[in-house]
Amino acid sequence: MSFPKTGKFLQDGDEVSFAAMVSVVLRGTLGDRPASIKQVARWTGAGERTVKNWFSGTSAPRGHHFRGLVRNCPEMLDAFLTSIGRRDHLAFARVEEARERLRQALTVLDFDAPDENPRE
Predict the structure, then answer these.
(1) How far is CA 103 from CA 12, 44, 48, 74, 116, in A?
(2) Is residue 70 a contact partner of residue 80, using CB atoms and an 8 Å limit?
(3) b/e for 32-45, b at 16 or more Cβ within 10 A?
(4) Domain presence at residue 75
(5) What's the CA gap between 64 and 62, in Å, rounded?
(6) Contacts of residue 46, Cβ cutoff 8 Å, sequence gap at least 6
(7) Which of 4, 16, 19, 75 has the fewest Cβ atoms within 10 angstroms?
């Protein structure tokens, strides 16, 4: 059984190319420098030539590479959720991110806090 070819578009009113969305977010967030391409390659494990194609919008990342992009570039998650009409999920993602940052801050504070009951 073969699956029908559905194209590379996400629907949200008008058609927006997934590859173009990735390209816009990458260039807007990181710029179009060789260092940016190398950084994204480290994030995703993809080759630099592949990442250059993402930056140019000629191809889009596959699932496991896209997951690496979202993990390291919050703007990518925002753009993706907006493109599929799920902006409501942005609030949940931001709350979870705030919780994680709060956990990290509390860990640092607990580690650096002086002993409240010093022994004499």
Answers:
(1) 36, 26, 35, 19, 21
(2) yes
(3) eeeebbebbbebbe
(4) yes
(5) 6
(6) 40, 54, 61, 65, 68
(7) 4
Residue 15 lies in a domain: yes
Q: How do the residues of the chain divide into helix, strand and coil, expressed in percent and rounded to 5?
A: 65, 5, 30
Cα–Cα dist 39/109, whole Å: 31
Average pLDDT for 39-45: 96
Q: How confident is the model at residue 112 (pLDDT cuts 50, 70, 90)?
A: low
Amino acid at position 86, single letter? R
Report strand pairing: 9-12 vs 14-17.
Answer: antiparallel
Report helix, strand or coil for 114: coil
In the chain, the number of structural domains is 1
**Amino acid type, 59:** S
Does residue 118 belong to any structural domain of this protein?
no
DSSP reduced 3-state for 11:
strand
Q: Which domain holds residue 71?
A: 9-86
**What are φ and ψ of residue 86, in 5° steps?**
-120, 50
Q: Which residue has the higher pLDDT, 91 or 30?
A: 30
- Name the nearest CA neighbour of 26 among 67, 70, 62: 70
